[in-house]
Design goal:
The protein contains four helices and 17 strands.
């Protein structure tokens, strides 16, 4: 069952007083800040630590070895592009009109080249051979309703029919339904966004400039939830960014370093647990993440249940990304 309160770990509204729920919300926020502080602490400490490596040792290192040693004092800042290939997943929809519906094995499309193009940005600090990456990934995920991102017309539209269980508008659901019978729009297209914190490890160097790496980490999903239902007024449309649950990723790639620049090709697997609220709210021009997150925090604080219901699913995706970035020397001194 999908919880009717805000956030994937939120409890159901019960007989507890409002103060207790506010304490619970503050505790959850404090825990998130504490985790962020713990993972960031060694990165910050590294930037303040002096470079006590003897100068004569530096002079004796060959150029390739010196580049690898220098990277322990550098931060890698990069961007990349990619295209996700999603697993099918179940969607659970619950609304106040008597709908408690499970839709089985929906297919998801990416529409990666439609603006904004799918990809991400990252920063990595290395302590040879280990590192830590903060990675923000933007993908799109669109249910097969015969349209592309934001209702864009397609040359070969596909409307999917899926198995269903449960109830739909107070009646037993038929064994199969077209998605267009339930949704006018079901997508995360201003982003199936995930913010990920990933410990990294470099492997042996293939050449002085080429080295493989891998990482395994976790974070949070912050998608732009777009859920519309056919025949319903605009005020029933959900269009907003939400913190919707945890996420995880595995990465494995190979890097080519040329001076202060690096180019990489990487396999990325991501998985997100989406527990979205159907609110009827709309972002300013559908692109106002800070305002949406503030509204969500206020609803948590007031212990408000979602006005229109809930929707949950899980999104797992494979993709290969290509990118480039710059090495910023944090140890450099101004003459």
């Amino acid at each position: 069952m999908v919880a009717t309160t805000w956030g994937p770990s939120a409890r159901r509204i019960d007989a507890e007083g409002g103060f207790g729920r506010k304490v619970e919300t503050l505790t959850r926020i404090a825990a998130m800040l504490l985790v962020a502080a713990v993972v960031a602490r060694p990165w910050v400490a590294q930037s303040a630590a002096p470079d006590d490596r003897p100068a004569e040792v530096t002079r004796q290192l060959p150029p390739a070895a010196d580049a690898l040693q220098q990277s322990s004092r550098e931060v890698f800042i990069a961007g990349y592009v990619g295209a996700p290939f999603y697993y099918r997943s179940n969607v659970h929809l619950k609304r106040a009109d008597g709908t408690d519906l499970e839709l089985k094995r929906l297919g998801w499309d990416g529409d990666a080249l439609y603006f904004p193009i799918d990809g991400g940005v990252r920063t990595v600090q290395w302590w040879q051979p280990a590192g830590f990456m903060i990675d923000f990934l933007h993908n799109k995920a669109i249910a097969r309703l015969g349209r592309g991102a934001h209702g864009r017309k397609l040359s070969n539209p596909v409307i999917e029919e899926v198995e269903t269980t449960g109830t739909f508008k107070g009646q037993p659901a038929p064994p199969r339904m077209k998605l267009t019978d339930v949704f006018e729009r079901l997508e995360f297209t201003h982003g199936h966004n995930v913010l990920l914190f990933t410990p990294m490890l470099r492997l042996f160097a293939i050449t002085p400039s080429v080295r493989p790496y891998f990482g395994l980490g976790g974070g949070v999903a912050v998608p732009h939830v777009e859920v519309w239902h056919p025949g319903e007024p605009r005020e029933n449309r959900t269009n907003e960014y939400q913190y919707s649950g945890p996420a995880a990723q595995f990465v494995a790639g190979i890097e080519l370093r040329v001076g202060k620049w690096s180019y990489f090709v990487e396999y990325k697997f991501t998985y997100a647990w989406i527990a979205a609220a159907l609110t009827g709210d709309e972002s300013w021009k559908n692109f106002n993440m800070p305002g949406d997150m503030l509204r969500q925090l206020q609803r948590w604080w007031r212990s408000e249940p979602p006005k229109l219901g809930t929707l949950s699913t899980r999104l797992g995706a494979h993709q290969v990304v290509v990118g480039a970035g710059y090495w910023w020397d944090r140890g450099a001194k101004t003459p």
